[in-house]
Specification:
By secondary structure, the chain is of the alpha/beta class. It is 11% helix and 26% strand. It has helices at 19-23, 25-28, 197-204, 222-235, and strands at residues 7-9, 14-16, 32-35, 39-41, 57-58, 62-65, 81-82, 86-89, 105-106, 110-113, 129-130, 134-137, 156-161, 180-186, 210-213, 242-245, 252-257, 266-269, 275-279, 285-287. A nine-stranded parallel β-sheet has the order 2-4-6-8-10-12-13-14-15. A hairpin with a 6-residue loop joins strand 16 and strand 17. The longest helix has 14 residues, at 222-235. The radius of gyration is 24 Å and the shape is elongated.
């Protein structure tokens, strides 16, 4: 007898522990494109996921963990829906997330941690919504988050910590700050650029708790982030609309701004991100002699 599965199968889920299990999936479960339960991929000899090319939907969690030879996720190219959480953890040779390009939403949490060779998040290019928290931690060679440019919505905490090579949060620019419950950014010792729009927006109107500490200069603490966010706003102001002179100055500076705009307050920060002066301009002139 030949059993042909129509769309849904495996309501109790499946854990792939060897390359043979991956390779034989289509013959063992012919016609199965929707796995109804949780899926685990965890094997010391799994080198590719090509046998899973027909899978379009995982209704439960997808847990990719403890793989010692898997370098990317090619083979999951037709996967478009993950109903539960996506965990990518302790995969020692995983370099990128190539293979997840068709996934545009995750039904619960996305956790990426302790992947010692993960250089980029390529593969998450089309991810737009995470219906849960997003955590990136302890990925020692992850340099940037540039492949997250289409991500615009969360439903939980945003946690980024312990990523020693991470230099910038560019890529998180488009997340709606009001969708972040709590924001945790710490122990990313190379991280100097935190002043992306979503983070600055959250800083201005925090929904919950904000912990930012022990990153690199410019993002070492909340005071430095405040200064960087103010600087980012200034840099985006057209030069013809805002200028100040003289610069440098030892006594007074005069701020020239577009006609009809009143300056209510000026705030000055030093190079360490410390607030050193708050002043109300008189005729657009500020005394900086102190």
């Amino acid at each position: 007898h030949t059993v042909v599965y129509s769309q849904g199968c495996l309501p109790d889920g499946i854990v792939f522990t060897s390359q043979n299990m991956v390779d034989n999936f289509q013959s063992d479960y012919p016609g199965c494109t929707t796995i109804e339960g949780n899926v685990g991929i965890s094997g010391i000899n799994i080198v590719n996921l090509n046998g899973l090319v027909n899978v379009t939907t995982i209704s439960g969690d997808l847990d990719i963990t403890g793989n010692l030879a898997l370098k990317n996720l090619t083979g999951l190219n037709n996967l478009s829906t993950i109903g539960g959480s996506l965990h990518i953890t302790f995969d020692s040779l995983l370099v990128s997330l190539t293979g997840l390009e068709n996934v545009n939403s995750i039904g619960s949490n996305l956790i990426i941690h302790s992947n010692s060779s993960l250089v980029s998040l390529e593969g998450l290019n089309n991810l737009t919504v995470i219906h849960g928290l997003f955590e990136i931690r302890n990925n020692p060679v992850l340099v940037n988050l540039t492949y997250l440019n289409n991500l615009n919505q969360l439903a939980g905490n945003l946690s980024i910590f312990g990523n020693q090579a991470l230099t910038s949060l560019s890529g998180l620019d488009n997340i709606n700050a009001t969708s972040i419950s709590n924001l945790f950014i710490y122990y990313n010792y190379s991280l100097c650029n935190c002043n992306v729009k979503s983070i600055c927006d959250y800083l201005e109107h925090p929904v919950g708790e904000l912990i930012l500490t022990s990153n690199s200069t410019g993002c070492y603490n909340i005071q430095q982030l405040e200064a960087a966010c103010v600087g980012a706003i200034g840099e985006n102001t057209p030069a013809m609309e805002l200028s100040l002179f003289p610069n440098p100055a030892t006594s007074f500076i005069t701020i020239h701004i577009k006609e009809g705009i009143a300056i209510e307050e000026t705030i000055f920060f030093n190079h360490l991100g410390q607030k050193v002066l708050v002043a109300v301009p008189v005729n657009n002139t500020v005394d900086v002699s102190g």
